[in-house]
Design a protein that fits this description.
The chain has about 325 residues and is of the alpha/beta class. About 40% of the residues lie in helices and about 25% in strands. The chain contains ten helices and 13 strands. Strands 5-4-1-8-9-10-11-12-13 form a nine-stranded mixed β-sheet, sandwiched between helices. The chain has a four-stranded mixed β-sheet with strand order 3-2-6-7. Strand 2 and strand 3 form a beta hairpin. Helix 1 packs across helix 8, helix 1 crosses helix 10 and helix 8 (about 270-285) runs antiparallel to helix 9.
Length: about 325
């Protein structure tokens, strides 16, 4: 693979902004596994695995995440997991006297997940020094999303990060990832969602997200009425159905890879994001990736995760992608 085109003299970075949790996964009401997770977190772990294989030297590409954890044992598990998978913890806030969030995922007969969350959004906090210490450049890619990205309690920090990334010319990818449990918060957070879209180069969401937000799951209507006035590039995923992609008003539909046996859909969308972002990184190096290429790679990441109980792509897949 080509080395990154470095226009600033600094290592290109993939910067994630999002929450961390401990995912406890149940099947038939029995716990199956417990692993660090979170939407952006899942993406970043997969990206860390692939990037460190493709570019062993941190001087080539750096992966880091802006997030918070408690100062409990679970917080230590989460930060250690990041470090073990090639994700820098230099921008992680460890909040003293707090507990790391938990997520309970219950797999149904089709191995789709329903979630229950144990989080204190009102108690969310980021260390100002950690936030201001994150630098952005034109070679960087920023991935962010979920309620973390719109939480009023930390909005001043997330908005500052996004504005600085935008001013620096970084590529910004926003995964709305809006959960049913936050429907009551819509009046308070809708403007934050719109502002995030305005600051982004790519907006992605599932048809389910937009059903909760706008009362429609029709990709054309979602784009025309809600996304296009804010961001020209939109990706709408629809579970196992084809992906709808809108670029400057053009509309294309792409199939996604079939999975022989779906073990779990947890992390499917998160790893779609990881694949797309990794494709963007490669396109910055070679300038030859098409939208079809990006969606195909995103689909491969997603399919790999669906074939296991893990939230992240496996090491063999990471090696395969890194060599391609």
């Amino acid at each position: 693979m080509k080395e990154p085109v470095n226009t600033t003299g600094k290592a290109p970075k993939i910067i994630g902004i999002g929450e961390t949790v401990l995912d406890v996964i149940f099947k038939n009401d029995q716990p199956q596994s417990a692993t660090p997770g979170g939407s952006t977190f899942n993406s970043m772990i997969s990206l860390g695995r692939v990037v460190r294989k493709a570019f062993p030297s941190e001087a080539a590409v750096k992966v880091l995440m802006v997030t918070e954890v408690g100062d409990d044992h679970i917080g230590s598990i989460v930060t250690r997991y990041m470090e073990d998978n090639g994700v820098s913890t230099e921008a992680v806030t460890r909040n003293h006297g707090t507990q790391t969030h938990l997520s309970m995922a219950f797999l149904d007969d089709r191995n789709n997940a329903q979630y229950e969350f144990y989080k204190n959004h009102a108690g969310a906090s980021l260390d100002p020094e950690k936030v201001t210490g994150v630098e952005f450049g034109p070679d960087d890619i920023v991935l962010f999303g979920s309620f973390f990205a719109i939480n009023p309690k930390i909005r001043e920090f997330t908005l500052s990060l996004l504005k600085r990334a935008r001013a620096a010319g970084s590529t910004i990818y926003y995964d709305i990832n809006f959960r049913k449990s936050h429907i009551p918060d819509i009046p308070e957070v809708m403007e934050n969602i719109r502002e995030n879209c305005r600051l982004s180069d790519f907006v992605r969401g599932s048809d389910e997200d937009f059903g909760y937000l706008f009362g429609t799951t029709d990709p054309e209507q979602i784009y025309t009425e809600h996304i296009a006035p804010l961001c020209p590039n939109f990706i709408c995923t629809c579970g196992s159905k084809p992906v709808h992609v809108f670029v400057d008003s053009s509309h294309e539909v792409f199939p996604i890879p079939a999975v022989d046996e779906v073990i779990s859909t947890i992390g499917a969308g998160d790893n779609f994001n990881a694949g797309f972002v990794y494709g963007l990184l490669r396109s910055k190096m070679s300038s030859d990736a098409s939208v079809a290429d990006l969606i195909a790679l995103a689909g491969r990441f997603s399919a790999n995760v669906c074939a296991s109980i893990s939230n992240n792509v496996d090491e063999d897949f990471a090696s395969e992608v890194a060599k391609s």
